[in-house]
Amino acid sequence: MPPAKKRKTAATTAVPVEAEATNPSSQSPEPTSTEENNESKQQQTTEAEANTSQTNPEATSNKAQDRMARFRALQARAKQSSSHNLAEATKESQRLASDPSALTAIHRKRDVAAHKLLKAETEEAGDDFERKRAWDWTAEESERWDKRVKKRAAARDNNAFQDYRGESNKVYKRQLQNLAPDMERYERDKMAAIEKAAASGGLDIVETEDGELIAVDKDGSFYSTADSTNFINNKPEKAAVDRLVNDLKKAEENRLKKRKERMAENGDDGDVTYINEKNKQFNQKLNRFYNKYTAEIRDSFERGTMI
């Protein structure tokens, strides 16, 4: 037979009711003292802010005006920088798009046209053009210009080949024009040499009545002569050595370029297929008549595909 069912008694049914009655969490919680203090502080803070905003409306408006002024200054600054960047970018694009040599030619033509116009107007007025033109320059500037023009004319007339010594002299002067000496290092080395010579007793520093200092060489070893060998102790800097190497490379490139141009003018830019000048002329004559027929055969020989 199945077990009999247990009946609920009054005691068991009363326990949950008593538990519910004794459980404080099921009922609504009452506010504690800490929460009351926090709420009172928040209310006091809100009331203080309201009172401050009501009592100091001028301070609030001034603060808003300062912020607006700073914002407008930042906007103006951003606008100015963007416009400046746009202008610089436009100039850079124009500079890259233009040809410097073409601009130089245009400026030269403009100066020549202005010179001719001024000369024509001066001659029509009956004045001396050179005299009027000299009013814009000083005597020293005019003398320097005349000397420069004379030097250019002499260099232009002396362009023809005379001898190898004269050609070397012209190359040397042209290289000196592009030379930029380091005067600071020269003065530094000069003062160091003077101090060293004065310390060793080979050089005396004499002061004249005018206050000028003069170096007197006692034994003749300070100033260089044709027999001096002090230059062998000089050790150049690495930058000077690199500059010398670059100049030599540049001179070699120019020499090869001119040699190639001369060979191209004489028709010698290709392979050497002659043994003397007469044979060279004969080969040139053959090339003029038969090159158009033998071009394919010669190209096949060069490629190595000729059977």
Automatic annotation (TrEMBL):
Biased composition (Polar residues): 40-63
Keyword flag Cytoplasm: no
Biased composition (Low complexity): 10-35
Region described as Disordered: 1-102
Transmembrane segments: none
Compartment annotation: Nucleus
Summary of the function given for this chain in its UniProt record: Involved in pre-mRNA splicing.
Name the UniProt record assigns to this protein: Pre-mRNA-splicing factor SYF2
Organism: Apiospora phragmitis
Higher taxonomy: Eukaryota, Fungi, Dikarya, Ascomycota, Pezizomycotina
